[in-house]
Design goal:
Rossmann fold, 2 domains, binds S-adenosylmethionine, globular, alpha/beta, about 350 residues, two-stranded antiparallel ribbon, 11 strands, 9-stranded mixed β-sheet
Length: about 350
């Protein structure tokens, strides 16, 4: 859950480049972190169409977004009814304080409490998982605090006998904290579990293969590496080095979101672990990235979010995409009703 860098409130400045001397050269978005800025939050709340417990149903009949609590079995039931999900991609709060912000959305609690919270949402995931399904979980390890909660979480997961570990992926975040006194923190962990025997489609990066030669005899014929391979590109494997962390210059940036995952990473998961029209879900929607990836790849998505502001952002992101084909707002304000001073 690396937060985006250089996030400064832009309600005082129309242009992305600050003109005054003090902030010269700093670029920023038109919306501050909504978990920290209480005043902006308050204004935006009145434009959020969902209240706690309510569910938005896609007029095109594909997706649902609910302001619901991932730890509450009744809430999860309300969103899914009798439907089961082929793929769940969850990015819960990590219990690691980011940017000195101990807010309601990004708070740090005792690790045992955190594991209790996690156990609840994982058991709710199991209640809606298809017999053959994948579960991906993004998680962090706090290098300043015994690397919690990653090891505790992995051990807790062994309680769920229906699930089998399948892979442990690390994504390289291309922007990290530029400390001079330690290794720069650029890793992001992604656990992959399966139930039953879900589909898996091999996917490729945009990085070309460089290995020529490597001759091998196949059915009596000498073949070269490229002739044998299914693609000219390399596979991502379980260390993803080719995905750019989201920041304000990218189209997919959602101003106000503080923990946005790159769309490319979610697209990769959805492509590999689900098929067209499958139900994909995400219990911690935030910027609506799983919803958007599902729309792009013709899957259906049921997603929930505790905070009505992020549920609204998720719905708006889908609507904005359908209207403009844009994946985000870059540094524009997704809430134009809230005037910029
Ligand atoms: C790390 S962010 C998810 C980021 C998301 N993957 C993205 O790329 O935009 C975690 C989100 O979970 C939400 N959240 C926290 N507790 C929750 C709960 N009990 N149920 C549902 N959502 C919750 C927070 O409001 C926050 O938006």
């Amino acid at each position: 859950m690396h937060h985006k860098e250089n996030e400064l409130p832009l309600f005082t400045e129309e242009k992305p480049i600050h003109k005054n001397e003090e902030q010269k050269g700093k670029t920023t978005e038109k919306l501050t972190r909504l978990d920290i800025d209480a005043k902006t939050r308050e204004k935006i709340l009145s434009y959020c169409r969902l209240k706690s417990g309510e569910i938005w149903e896609d007029p095109e009949g594909k997706h649902k977004v609910g302001v619901l609590d991932a730890t509450n079995p009744a809430d999860v039931q309300k969103l899914f009814g009798k439907e089961k999900s082929r793929l769940v991609i969850n990015d819960p709060p990590y219990n690691v304080v980011v940017g000195n912000a101990n807010t309601q959305n990004l708070s740090k609690i005792n690790v045992n409490e955190y594991i209790g919270f996690s156990r609840k949402w994982v058991s709710n995931v199991l209640s809606i998982l298809d017999d053959n399904a994948g579960l991906y979980i993004w998680l962090g390890a706090d290098q300043n605090d015994g690397l919690q909660p990653l090891p505790e979480f992995i051990i807790m997961m062994r309680e769920f006998n229906e699930l089998r570990t399948r892979s442990f992926i690390t994504m390289r975040n291309q922007r990290g904290y530029g400390t001079q006194k330690n290794w720069m923190s650029v890793r992001q962990e992604l656990l992959y579990y399966i139930k039953g025997n879900p589909p898996f489609t091999v996917v490729y990066t945009d990085i070309p293969k460089i290995l020529r030669g490597y001759y091998k005899k196949i059915n009596g014929k000498i073949t070269e590496n490229f002739e044998r391979s299914k693609s000219q590109f390399i596979r991502p494997g379980n260390v993803w080095v080719d995905i750019q962390q989201v920041f304000y210059r990218m189209e997919e940036n959602v101003p106000g979101a503080y923990a946005q995952k790159p769309l490319k990473s979610i697209v990769r998961i959805v492509e590999a672990s689900s098929q067209k029209n499958d139900l994909v879900s995400d219990f911690f929607s935030h910027s609506g990235v799983t919803l958007l990836a599902s729309e792009q790849l013709e899957r259906r998505c049921y997603t929930m979010e505790l905070d009505p502001v992020f549920a609204e952002l998720s719905i708006r992101r889908l609507e904005h995409y359908r209207k403009t084909s844009k994946t985000g707002w870059q540094w524009d304000n997704p809430f134009p009703e809230v005037p910029i001073k």
